Amino acid sequence: MRVLALSSSPRKDGNSRMLAEAVLSGAASNGHQIDLVDLADVVRAPLRDCRTCRLSDGRCGIDDEYEELLRGKVADADAWIFATPLYWYGIAGQLKIFIDRLFCYTSSGNPDFADMIDRLKGKRFAVALTAEESYPGAVVGATAQLQELARYLRHEFVGVVRGVANSRGEVQRDPAKPMDQAYALGARLFDGIVSDYRVDSERSGVIWPTGAA
Ligand SMILES: Cc1cc2nc3c(=O)[nH]c(=O)nc-3n(C[C@H](O)[C@H](O)[C@H](O)COP(=O)(O)O)c2cc1C
C-alpha cells in the first residue's frame, strides 16, 4: 500500500514532521511504500474566488505544484498522514490551504471533478500533531476538524498521535513516548479495526482475534 505524509510545519526539522516520519517508519516496517511531502514546498497560494480564478476550461488557475501533488501522490495514496503543529489551537495554515484547495478540483466547475472525488475517497487516515501545551483540550478543535474531514471523504480515521513539544526535536523526549506511538500507528495503519458502531450494528462481541499480541 502507498502511504503519503503531508507535513505542514514550515519548520522542516521540527516535531510534527518527526512524528510523521515515525508513522512512515512503522508503515515501512510492514512493507508499505512511504513518501513525505513538505506542503511549504508545494502550496504557494491560498484558495481564491474560483469564479474569477478558474481558467476558461474550468481548471484551477493557481500556478504552483498543488495540482501535480494532488493528481499524483495524494490521489494515488492508500493512506494519508496529516502532520501539523498546533497553531493558535488549530491546524497549521499550510495544511488548511491544502484542504481548502481541494474545492477547486471537487466542485462541479472543474471538468474532472467526478473522477477526482472518486480518487480522494476511501483511504486510511491518521494525524500526527505536536503542541507546546499538554492540556488535553488544546488539540480538540484541530483533531475534530480533521476527523470531520475524514468522515466527509469516507476515509477510515485510524488515529491521532499527539506529542507535547516546543523546541526542535523535543518530541523525542516526551515521556509519553509519542514517537513509539507514531511508529505503532504506522505499523497498524491497514490492520486496525476502525469502528463506527451504531446501535444496530452487527457485532461479534470480540474486537481482537484470539492470539493477537
Ligand atoms: C504560530 C504558532 C502558534 C502556536 N500556537 C500554539 C497553540 O495554540 N498551542 C500550543 O500548545 N502550542 C502552540 N505553538 C507551539 C507549537 O505547536 C509547537 O512548538 C509544535 O511542537 C511545533 O511543531 P513543529 O516543530 O513541527 O513546527 C505555536 C507555535 C507557533 C509558531
TrEMBL record:
GO molecular function, one term: oxidoreductase activity
Keywords noted in UniProt: Flavoprotein, FMN
Keyword Flavoprotein among record annotations: yes
Positions of transmembrane segments: none
SUPFAM superfamilies assigned to the protein according to its UniProt record, in alphabetical order: Flavoproteins
One Pfam family cited in the UniProt record for this chain: FMN_red
Flavodoxin-like domain location: 5-190
Signal peptide residue numbers: none
InterPro entries documented for this protein: Flavodoxin/NO_synth (IPR008254), Flavoprotein-like_sf (IPR029039), FMN_Rdtase-like_dom (IPR005025), ISF_SsuE-like (IPR051796)
PANTHER family xref list: NAD(P)H-DEPENDENT FMN-CONTAINING OXIDOREDUCTASE YWQN-RELATED
Name of the protein in its database record: NADPH-dependent FMN reductase
Source organism of the structure: Tamaricihabitans halophyticus
